[in-house]
Amino acid sequence: MIGLSHYLIVSALIFSIGLMGVLRRRNLLMLFFATEVMLNAVNIAFAAFSHYYNDLTGQMFAFFLIAIAASEVAVGLGILIVLYKKYGSLDLDDLASMKG
Amino acid sequence: MMENLVYIALFAPFVSSMFSALFGMSPRQTFVGIVASTLLFISFAASATLAMHVYSTGVGIHVTMMDWISAGDLHIPFGFLVDQVSVTMMTVVTLVSTVVHIYSIGYMDHDKSFNRFFSYLSAFVFSMMILVMSDNFAGLFIGWEGVGVCSWLLIGFWYHKKDVSREENPSISPSWAANEAFIMNRIADLGMLVGLFIVYWNVGSLQYDVVFASLPELSGSVLNAAAIFLFIGAMGKSAQFPLHTWLTDAMEGPTPVSALIHAATMVTAGVFLVIRANPLFSMTPEVSYFIASLGTFVAFFAASMALVNRDLKRIIAFSTLSQLGYMFAAAGLGAYWIALFHLAAHAFFKALLFLGAGNVMHAMHDELDIFKMGGLKKVMKWTYIYMGLASLALAGIPFFAGFFSKDAIIETAWNEGTLILWFILVVTAGMTAFYSFRQVFLTFHGDERYKAFGIHPHEMYKFVLIAMSPLAFLAVVAGFGMGGFEHFVTKLLPEYHMSEHTHHIAWILGLVVLLFAVGGILLAYKKYDKGLKRDEKLENSFIYRLLANQYYIPQLYEGFITKPYAMLSEMMWTKVDMKIVDATVDGIAKLLYKSGDKTRKMQTGNLSNYLNWMAVGAVLLLVVAALSAMLG
Q1: pTM value?
Q2: DSSP assignments along B566-581, one per residue
Q3: How far A51 CA lies from chain B's nearest CA (Å)?
Q4: Residues of B contacting chain A (CB within 8 angstroms)
Q5: Which tens digits make up the pLDDT trace of B346-381?
Q6: Closest by CA position to B557, among listed B233, B319, B242
Q7: What mean pLDDT do residues B453-475 have?
Q8: How far is CA B137 from its chain centroid?
Q9: Which of A26, B220, B319, B410 could serve as a FRET partner for B161 with CA atoms 20 to 30 Å apart?
């Protein structure tokens, strides 16, 4: 029988994969993908809790998250295109213009 | 009308000071001295009119100019009280000041800081007027500090003179002497402040009338503490032992300053305080007896040092010290009006003596060693007469001013049954006569030793000599006003009567004092009239050297107080201040600077690094939350 904890473990694993991506990757586009992965891990957790408590609020939150993620990607990708046009690269090591 | 006179008497010296200060930086202007002297004379005329008014009506004038401090329960107005005591002081102060101002026009003739001198001198008179006229202790204290500052300014008037060794000049330099006077007075003023705090703490007011009215409700220990601390203040200002060394060193100032401040007026402020606070001191017999004993001791102690001194001004300074001792003896024994009378009489003849010494100094081109003078009476007839009269008054020769006042003090000592004090005071009277006339004879009689030094003395300007005449007149006749004076001031001060027995033998007591005085004069005449014969054996004797070195007290103070204190300060500076206090403050600043410098590297500009730091922070927060959830 697959229970709540299984879903949460999957969610945690996916979140960790996303976090590692955010920390280790150097390409901004990859960072975006990693953030999406983390958001979806949270969505899994929301849906699992919602089912467990028999409360639809959690699933409603998951829909909100999907909507926010979509708009975030739209804005973020726009910025990325501008950045690429300006610097010709999306590598974070090349984009360190705020060095103190 | 009378209220206006009070303000005129008080503020004329202030206007004079401000006026002279306008020309402080410009070259000598004779009219500055003339305007200052005129304003001082106006102040004197107002004071004299007030004295007549108080004499005829028998009641004082109390005016309140404005509120000064009003905070919570503390309420101190700028109020002035012109009663029998303060009007006596006002008249004496303004009279001597006027004479000294006129005198200074001649004496400071060649000084390039002529205008500045008048500004300081008038400022002193203004402070002194505040001191004597105030109707509360706070105002008295302001005047007290004001005269202290002016004294400092005037002792150090020739501040450009360099420090020399103590052997060459016992007061080292004017600026050194000024600082000594100021610092010693600060020590005493601390005592005075504590006394004022005790009074305010227990009474809740500093107004004289309120304080004196509530004295019977206070406990004996509070009264004693207040009296002791107030007297410590008086000891500093009046240079009583052990705070006496500054007075002789203060002679570094110009001679008119010595006459006005360090003989006639400021140094008597301590006596004035005791007289003013007589309701307090009459309720503390132990403290009063201590005051009388200390006064008697200082009278003798100072006179003994004057016996062998060679410095014209220092001898007079010692004699001032000695006479202040007499005043304290009288005040301590409860004869307040006699103390006040001696104060006034002393102001006249001592100012005259000092101004005469100034004439001599002027004539001798600033030479003060009486061993280098002699025979000056031929060239300085009037100065000789003036100084002779003043010395006769000081020695207590009958019918001169000092005879009545000093005799009354000595009689008081007998009347109180304090025979030891009486004996010391009588002996001191003899010593006073001796050193006064030793000085007169060495300066004006005998061989003309100054010729060997190529000095050509000349008499002072005529207007200066005329200006001195009121003092000479008063030094001769002031004593005859004693009965009237007693009648006048005992309306306010406690009466003091000799017992029937004392009254009966008063003429014998007077005769004893007179014998000592005449004996002193005759001894001085025998030894010094024909000229100076140095006695090597005597001058090398232990006692002579002890006295000539002022009992080695200045050296003692320097060795045991000044030098260790300087060493301690040096140590505190290099060890404590530099190594601990400064190091701590600098350390904190360095720590912040360095931590900033090191953490600056965190800011690489690389988004990836920032995200890593953010993750570390989030993990840390999680750990903290988890730990607190587990423990809580």
Answers
A1: 0.80
A2: HHHHHHIIIIIIIIII
A3: 26
A4: 600, 602-608, 611-612, 615
A5: 999 999 999 999 988 888 888 888 888 878 888 888
A6: B242
A7: 87
A8: 18
A9: B319
